[in-house]
Amino acid sequence: MSWASLRDLLSGVNKYSTGIGRIWVAVVFLFRLLVYVAAAENIWKYEREDFECNIKQPGCENVCFDHFFPVSHIRLWALQIIMVSTPSLLVVFHIAYRENREKHHNRKLYKSPGGIDGGLLCTYLISLILKIGFEIVFLVLFYKLYNGFKIPRLVKCDRRPCPNTVDCYISKPTEKMIFLYFLVATSCLCIVLNLSELSYLVCKYSMKCYLKRYIKKHQ
Question: Where in the numbering of this chain does the Connexin cysteine-rich domain appear (predicted)?
Answer without folding.
Answer: 134-201
